[in-house]
Each structure stands twice: as structure tokens, then as C-alpha cells.
Amino acid sequence: MTVQDLMRHTAGFVYGQFGEQLVHQAYRDAKVLDREQSLAENVTKLAKLPLAHHPGEVWEYSVSVDVLGRVIEVVSGMELDRFIAERITKPLGMAATDFYVHEPDLPRLALAQLGADGKPPTLPDVTQKARLLSGGGGMVSSAADYLRFASMLLNGGQNGEAALLSPRTVQLMTSDALPPGIAFTERALRMNQDIGPTPQMGQGFGLGFAVRTAPGHNPLPGSVGTFYWTGAWGTTFGSIPRRS
Q1: For residue range 117-131, what is the model confidence (pLDDT) as tens digits?
Q2: pLDDT band at 243 (very low <50, low <70, confident <90, very high)
Q3: Considering only CA atoms, which of 85, 79, 77 is closest in space to residue 102?
Q4: Which residues pair with 229 in a beta bridge?
Q5: Residue 150 has pLDDT above 90, yes or no
Q6: Using one digit for the tens of pLDDT, what is the confidence trace for 153-175?
Q7: How do residues 2-14 score in pLDDT, each as one tens digit?
Q8: In 3-state terms, the chain is what percent helix, strand and coil (to 5)?
């Protein structure tokens, strides 16, 4: 697998909770993404498990981004939270964003909406720093901070005086990176529906985002060039850039 495979979810990994095949069961038995273990420990466990698909052949939403988080740690020599703070959140002024809620912000922590059964969903405890610094999820933020991050991408990698990426890099990230003839598992199609990066939905997938590639196929608002993604707990952002 390549770094590109990790970024576009074609590396051959899965999420253990999204299936009943032997590979999914192996993920669950190994407790992949255990919050009581470090990112390095989790990726070491993952490396001993079988792949579900040959890299580059199937789009499957997966733990790929967690592996990317570990790649960042190895290359930078820093733990993931420190890297994100020094290279992303501090330059962008995102003071309320981290892998846990800092004590001054605890009174601002929003409660989860109750489900149809009248009970709140089971969420990770974000009032304490977990050992797992998940590359694929688990950060907390404020709406204002999240807007700063999304605006940086919309503005070609820059927000105010903070320039994190070049416009050319953002253009690459928000272009469809899926190869012709890419396959999708039945589970992936059901899980994602209208946000799925499928030709039926007029979409592809870039380096981290779903990308709108064709008009008229998707029921969600947007136009060709729109890029967006949705978090597991409902945190969604979308950008509709002007294309010259």
C-alpha cells in the first residue's frame, strides 16, 4: 500500500465494527483502536492482521487515517497531538481543539442528542486525555475553530496570515484520486449512501474528502468541485470553491 492508498481509503483495511467477515472479527478480537493503548501499539497490532482487499482495488472506509497518524509520528518524531498543535491548530488560532476538552472549556462541552429510545449515545470520554491519539477521529473542537480549519481549505491552504498548504496541494487533495474501475463493497455502499464516493452519487474521493465530480446525481447540495466529509458523531463540513 502507498500513502495515497491510506489517504483515499484504498489501502485494504476496514473498520472492525462495520462487518461480520472474519477480518472484521479479527479486528474486534485484537481490539484495534483500543483507547487505552497508544497509536503505535494499535498500528503494531494492525500490522499483524490480514487485509480485506488488495491495496488500490477497493474503496473501503477504514482505519487508514489512523495509520497515517502513526506515519506522521514516525516521520516528524513527535506524538500526533503535539504535531497537530504545532503545525495546524496553533498557527490557525484553534485554541479549543485537541484530543480532549481542556479544563477551562469543560462548561462549554455540548451534550449528545438523545436517541429514539430516549437515551444518549455511547460516546468516548473527552474530558480526559486518552492514550490513543487517533488519526481518524476522536478530536474535539468548537464550531468557530472548525470554521477556521474549513476556511483554510476553502482559501487554498491559507487563513489570515497562517499558510499551511499551497494552493496546488489543496487542489490535489480535493481532486478525485480514485482509479478507474475501483470497486466498492456492499457494506461501504450501504454505509455511505449519498456521501459515498461512487459514480452513482456523482462523486469520487480525494486525499481525505469526498469530491463532487458530476452534477445531477446527488441529492445533497453542492456542485462539481464541492469537497466535504462527515464525522461519525455528525460533525460535517463542506466547501464549494469557485473554479476558474
Answers
A1: 988 888 889 999 999
A2: low
A3: 85
A4: 237
A5: yes
A6: 999 999 988 999 999 999 999 99
A7: 999 999 999 999 9
A8: 35, 10, 55
* 3 state SS of 89: helix
What is the Rg, in whole angstroms, of the alpha carbon atoms belonging to the chain? 18
Q: To the nearest whole percent, how much of the chain has pLDDT over 90? A: 78
Give the C-alpha separation, 195 to 219, whole Å: 10
Beta strands of the chain (E only): which ranges? Answer: 58-59, 158-159, 162-163, 183-184, 203-205, 210-212, 227-230, 236-239
Instruction: Find out whether 196 and 190 touch, Cβ atoms under 8 Å.
Output: no
Which whole-number Å values give the CA distances from 91 to 67, 95, 123, in the listed order? Answer: 24, 10, 29
Enclosing H/E stretch for 171: helix 167-173
Domain covering 3-239 assigned CATH 3.30.230.70 in the classification: no
User: What's the CA gap between 158 and 97, in Å, rounded?
Assistant: 18
Q: Which amino acid, residue 117?
A: D
